[in-house]
Amino acid sequence: MRVLSIVGARPQFVKLGPVSQAMTRAGESFGCPIDESILHTGQHYDEQMSEVFFRELAIHPPDINLEAGSGSHGAQTARMLEGIEQELIKLEPDAVVIYGDTNSTLAGALAAAKLHIPAAHVEAGLRSFDRKMPEEVNRLVADHTSDLLLAPTAVAMKNLADENLTGRALLVGDVMLDATMLYGRAAQGSNELAEKLRLGSEGLAVATIHRPANTEPGVLARLLVTLNQVAASLIPVVFPVHPRTRAVIDEHFSDWRPGPRLHMTEPVSYTEMLRLLGTATVVLTDSGGLQKEAFFSGVRCITLRKETEWTETVTLGGNVVVGNEPARIEAAVAEALGAETFRGSDEHREGLEGYGGGKAADRIVEALVNEFWVQGD
């Protein structure tokens, strides 16, 4: 069976890793050898946001790189759509696999639908119920055009049922947990970045900011002040800076400097982030992926948004959604630092089982074989 996997951004590379490995095992596991090709749209093209993940996660280099680059949502998606369509016509795969909720996901879903090529959406059914988020629109289009909806959680399955999509949906678990378990072993050992920054034994916080709502200059200015305050008065903060965030800082706040306990770094690789999470006490982020990585690692998370798709992390007590107001953020950090350890708690263990227990990748590949493989092809 010929499969084209379409990815373009950091979280998708992480999800691809376990699934690609499971595809390699498909002949032995399911009696169906899978010939996988990987198409990288080039949505993330910075070396620290792209190539390093393929090396680190032992994914074979992309067979196709469209080098779409950045730009407005319409321009970027259009370049991807045109390139993906051309490759689908040449490759004629039996199925397309798309991941998550980026413009790469949207372009892959549309191209496959227009050419009547079956598509499977990994991480289907997520909803923030905020259509001002580009990701929400991408999710809706991907789910309503794909042929197989691979949901990570029971909540995602309910969302799909509410949209009359149950007939195409299957609960498989969250492949990000597979990745955390698979690559977490490789991340064990000394935290070189923490050692380089000379962080002591008092613990650390990890912060990331990248969403458009938080990188608007007025909002970002408040968040930078807040991170400085948290670092100065509560706990040292390691702040890997996303390229989008760095560009806004360079343009609007070129004279701004962080305090001595706010450590701004270049983007970190996946295993570097897992190492940071291994010693972190709390995470502050607007990233959907890092919310889950924190939860899986047993680290309390403070989400710098008004909503989250990962409501299970909130229900089980590992995550709190506070928005981007400084007072609420500082109060949430103080509360997290005073709370009992989340790692290894009953709620943490319950959550890991609810996210599939690390078996999502094999379930995904089994579903692809059952749905799209025609024996004798």
Q: What is shown here, in short?
A:
The chain has 377 residues and is α/β, with parallel strands linked by helices.
Secondary structure elements and pairings:
Elements: E1 2-7, H1 10-24, H2 26-30, E2 35-40, H3 51-56, E3 64-65, H4 73-91, E4 95-99, H5 103-114, E5 119-122, H6 134-145, E6 148-151, H7 154-162, E7 169-171, H8 175-187, H9 192-196, E8 204-208, H10 212-215, H11 217-233, E9 237-240, H12 243-252, E10 262-265, H13 270-279, E11 280-285, H14 288-297, E12 300-303, H15 311-315, E13 319-321, H16 326-338, H17 346-354, H18 360-372
At the fourth CATH level, what is the homologous superfamily of the largest domain?
Glycogen Phosphorylase B
Separation of termini?
7 Å
CATH topology of the largest domain: Rossmann fold
The CATH architecture of the largest domain can be given as: 3-Layer(aba) Sandwich
> Could you estimate the helical fraction of the residues in percent?
40-55%
Q: What is the molecular shape? A: globular
How much is the average pLDDT?
92
Unreliable residue runs: none
> Would you count the extended β strands for me?
13
Structural class: alpha/beta
Biggest β-sheet description:
7 strands, parallel
Text of the CATH class of the largest domain: Alpha Beta
* Integer count of domains: 2
Description of the molecule:
It is a single chain. With 377 residues, the chain is α/β, with parallel strands linked by helices. It folds into 2 domains: 2-173 and 359-372, Glycogen Phosphorylase B (Rossmann fold), CATH 3.40.50; 185-354, Rossmann fold. The chain has 18 helices and 13 strands. It has helices at residues 10-24, 26-30, 51-56, 73-91, 103-114, 134-145, 154-162, 175-187, 192-196, 212-215, 217-233, 243-252, 270-279, 288-297, 311-315, 326-338, 346-354, 360-372; strands spanning 2-7, 35-40, 64-65, 95-99, 119-122, 148-151, 169-171, 204-208, 237-240, 262-265, 280-285, 300-303, 319-321. The strands form 2 sheets. A 7-stranded parallel beta sheet has the order 3-2-1-4-5-6-7, sandwiched between helices. The longest helix has 19 residues, at 73-91.
